[in-house]
From TrEMBL:
EC number(s) given by UniProt: 2.7.7.65
Domain GGDEF: 318-453
Source organism of the structure: Brevundimonas nasdae
Protein name in UniProt: diguanylate cyclase
InterPro entries reported in the protein's UniProt record: Diguanylate_Cyclase, GGDEF_dom, Sig_transdc_resp-reg_receiver
Length: 453
């Protein structure tokens, strides 16, 4: 699907011209003629990029951009201000309003489309992260809360062999950020793989290929840090290539300190928002397969792993064993000491369980006081030995609860089963282990029962 671009300009001829150029390049185009309509249309159509004219009657482009960035529904959409203004103050004003770039008329089609493609790719990555996080939230596994994303205190690497220019960048950004300068290309390529919020590369460097450094800084583990390319405005080909290679933004030489600060703040804020979404996604994925109380894997994870391992075993792979463990008389703990004490017992039991299984085993909480251990590559005898070790450890030491005020003797009943032929299934394996637990309970508890097919 092509990227959707919204064009906002009060001059009909300008709108039609941009629509025609973008359509030829296979972009999906929507348009309007004033700032108020732009706010509504952007929220409704969710474009991948907004080309916004500055000089409009009523609400100008600066104010429209500021409001777009203030609304939760539209703040993630890249905005490029398009105007005949070419003053330094206007450019900085636009960047501080939240614009991602500032393009002057008459438009250079090559630069325009390079910026449109670059920012559209960025928006699509952000959309994927936001969609995954929203899906996790709907599933009830997303972490709560938001945080105010600051643009100060960033870790910035300047890759530049021009000593005077590098010092100028460091002096300007050093007021708000932690800046490191690297003039050697090989050392810089190693440095970009560290924890950085922004990389600034002089792509017109004399002693190394700046475009190569840029390309390598967008590969592998380093790709998350945005790159701000320092370019010669007369070298259009190098500027376009920098954007094609993944530069998030460009700044022209000679560098304007205030413009540099504004662009750096924009990139660092966006990097932290992206990190925030990734962190939430990672936390959501972990919550989806982890029991919140004990930290062990949950039933969902156990089911998926057991299905795969049994399927492999019945098709000639190594066997898989299963332990089902049930805490004896757990209801008496809850009734006699309260559910908080019961939770303490479950947490301590999970620790003892996890420390007594093999490194390859998967201890899981099935629910309540029932636990499962999936044992890849184990047979019935191997699993029985591990089960007996767990049983002894649980019974040998009392469980401290209520801040150590009470000591409880806890025992467990364990059923053991292992795969036994081409017709076995995860359900049959789990059923046999369950039957072992029931038999252990019937025989007085605190017993391990292995159930062969």
């Amino acid at each position: 699907m092509s990227a959707r671009v919204m064009v906002v300009d009060d001059v009909e001829a300008n709108v039609r011209l941009l629509e025609a150029k973008l359509t030829i390049e296979y972009f999906d185009v929507v348009s309007c003629h004033d700032g108020l309509t732009a706010l509504t249309l952007a929220a409704e159509t969710q474009p991948d990029l907004i080309l916004l004219d500055v000089m409009m009657p009523g609400m100008d482009g600066f104010e429209t951009c500021r409001r777009l960035k203030a609304q939760a529904e539209t703040r993630h959409i890249p905005v490029v201000l398009v105007t005949a203004l070419d003053g330094r103050e206007d450019k900085i004003r636009g960047l501080e309003a939240g614009a991602d770039d500032f393009i002057t008329k008459p438009l250079d089609d090559v630069i325009l489309f390079a910026r449109v493609r670059s920012l559209s790719r960025l928006k699509q990555v952000m959309d994927e992260l936001r969609e995954r996080e929203e899906n996790s939230r709907r599933m009830g596994v997303s972490t709560d809360g938001d945080r105010r994303l600051r643009a100060e205190g960033g870790r910035v690497l300047v890759v530049d062999d021009n000593e005077a220019q590098a010092k100028k960048i460091a002096d300007q950004l050093g007021v708000e950020h932690r800046v490191t300068i690297e003039a050697n290309a090989d050392a810089a390529i190693k440095a970009v793989r560290g924890p950085l919020d922004l990389v600034i590369v002089n792509v017109a460097a004399d002693s190394f290929d700046g475009l190569r450094v840029l390309a390598l800084s967008k590969s592998g583990d380093a790709r998350r840090a945005p790159v701000l390319a320092v370019v010669d405005p007369m070298d259009r080909a190098r500027m376009v290539k920098a954007l094609e290679l993944g530069a998030a933004d460009v700044v022209n030489r000679p560098i304007d300190p205030d413009e540099l600060s504004a662009r750096a703040r924009t990139q660092i804020r966006r990097k932290r928002y992206t990190d925030f979404l990734r962190d939430k996604l990672d936390s959501s994925l972990e919550l989806a397969v982890t029991d919140a109380l004990t930290g062990l894997h949950n039933r969902r994870y156990m089911t998926g792993q057991l299905d795969a391992l049994v399927n492999r075993a019945v098709h000639g792979g190594s066997s898989v064993a299963l332990l089902v463990l049930d805490i004896d008389h757990f209801k008496l703990v809850n009734d006699g000491f309260g559910h908080d004490a019961g939770d303490e017992v479950l947490i301590e039991f999970a620790v003892r369980l996890a420390t007594n299984v093999r490194a390859v085993d998967l201890p899981c909480r099935l629910g309540g006081e029932e636990f499962v251990v999936v044992m890849p590559g184990a047979d019935l005898e191997d699993a029985g030995r591990v089960a007996e070790r767990i049983r002894r450890d649980v019974a040998s030491q009392p469980f401290r609860i209520m801040g150590g005020k009470e000591m409880l003797t806890i025992t467990i009943s364990i059923g053991v089963a292992a795969t036994c032929g081409p017709h076995d299934t995860p359900e049959l394996l789990l059923k046999r282990a369950d039957e072992g637990v029931y038999e252990a309970k019937a025989k007085g508890r605190n017993i391990v029962i292995a159930k062969a097919a």
